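Field guide to reading this record: the first block holds the primary sequence, the second block holds the structure written as discrete tokens, and the final block holds curator observations. Each block starts with its own label. This record concerns Thiolase family protein, catalogued under organism Aromatoleum evansii.

BLOCK 1 — SEQUENCE
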Amino acid sequence: MTQPYPNEALILGAVRTPFGRRGGALRETRPDELLATAVGGVLQRTGLPADRVGDVLAGCVSQAGEQGANIGRQAALLAGLPAEVPGVSMNRMCGSSQFAVHAASQAVAAGDLDFAIGCGVESMSRVPMFLDLTLGKGDFRGFDGLHPDILRRYAIPHQVESAERIAEQWKFSRADMDEFAIESHRRAEAARAAGLHAEILPVKGVDKDGAAITLAHDEGIRASIDVDRMRGMAPVFRQPGEGGVTAANASQMSDGASAVLVGRRAAAEALGIRPRARFRARVAIGSDPVMQLTGVIPAARRALELAGLSIRDLDWIELNEAFASVALCFAREFAPELDKLNPWGGAIAHGHPLGGTGAGLMAKMLAGLEHRGGQFGLQVMCIGHGMATATVIERI
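BLOCK 2 — STRUCTURE
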């Protein structure tokens, strides 16, 4: 058991919106409004007065259009926080809001702040990946925007190609990846049907006809899978028979937001707010830019080392399912108890709203630990261009 110290940073609350399908129920909701909902929601659930927040640190990947102009600050103002509360936006790609939570906790641990919110958002319906408004209306900039010297030195491929190379290196078949995807949906649907997602904030949305609805669950989860259709899908980039990564065994593009409130123990207890978890490790690492997604392996090893734990000590492992091959290679390398790896499914089922996913997975993991009565949780995410983030928390 770690001993508390005066500025120990603790998780006081963690929430997320449901993750909506791209073009789905949240398509008409601005991302700054989504993030404001998460920020306001975590304050409401914990009871922290808005004027006690020291900073709002927001992860967001495509910082253009409605996600530009420092969406962290915009969301804080929309959520009704006092003008004196600052906000910042940061981009560590898929790990953005997980890193935002790290940064919030580090500010508290340093004694700079009593309370901070690490949060994130992405509306992939309203601000598509690689959208660059400087190029003209609706134009996209993908890998063409990378510096030529970077491309010459590393020949960075699309993430889908990296996922294919992972499958080849670890010898995973198309059937292996499809079966993993089916299990992700099965677990996600079971958790949804049982009402286990205490971290989710219902939000207003619209149905396919534009009528107002309340979305209270992740929209991408499939209660039943058309297995024949799944197995008949063509690979995303490679020719049939030459690749196994399809839209069905990769994460869904989504809309969503999340927020984690971090506070100093004494400051929280003075307000009667019950701490829920402490940080045992915070990690960000660089890895091979070509394989790109295998950073989850050294990141998890480093996080476990810092926490003084082994994979067997964990009660919950929340691995972002960017692609089935990433999760499968992690499982091959660490051999965890499989019922502890994404017990409520993952991004293949519930979606991956880029900047909103990291803090969302942390909220989900904390809810899962509390439901199971577990103590230790590991969250780990692969990141484009060869990086990864990892966090170990201990439930209080």
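BLOCK 3 — OBSERVATIONS
The CA atoms of residues 27 and 125 lie 6 Å apart.
The first helix runs from residue 31 to 46.
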